[in-house]
Amino acid sequence: MQIMITNHFTCAETAKLIRQSLSEAFSGVKFSVRSRTYSGGASIYVSWTDGPNAAQVEAATGGFKAGYFDGLIDYQGSIYHMMDGQQVCFGADHIATVREHSDAAVQTAIDRIYRRYKGNFTESGLIAPTVDQFRSGELYRVQVAGLHWDGASNVQTMIHAALAKNSDRLKVTHSKTASRKFVTHDDGYSRACGEGFCAVKATGPVGIVDAN
Question: What count of other Cβ atoms lies within 10 Å of the Cβ of residue 16?
């Protein structure tokens, strides 16, 4: 019986693969991809300004995660992949993404919101908010008639939501590097003892696809 050997990537090697995948998927966008190892684990931090939204970037980076966390039993589990015909384990348990926004992007979001809800702002005796107000967090205290009634939503959260949805592209370019890998299985402990996390799902009668 042939024994399959698992190739373990370091956190830095995993970061390099992620950097290449992002370069292929989002041409022209400058990403910062930093790796960090510490006692008990490793993480990769991805940051960029404007460009694609977080959901689009996370779709490209999430498939490189080597771990999952089950909060029900406070357990950190493992996820395994195949890459280029070989069983692999990537080197980062966590991959965090942080998208920054330029003043121009913030102003565009503000303009869009104000145009749509100008009547509500006028009814509340408010003029268009400014980028400086957003940066300072002042708009967390500003609520608009007919829009905010739950005590939690406000003009600041409206702008954050508009920024989160905005993207400079409708379609993400296929990444050859990212397509070289797919999830095969996890360690199964969460399904046996925890909340039932599963890293893969079947696509029809047979087959496994990358769930990340």
Answer: 15
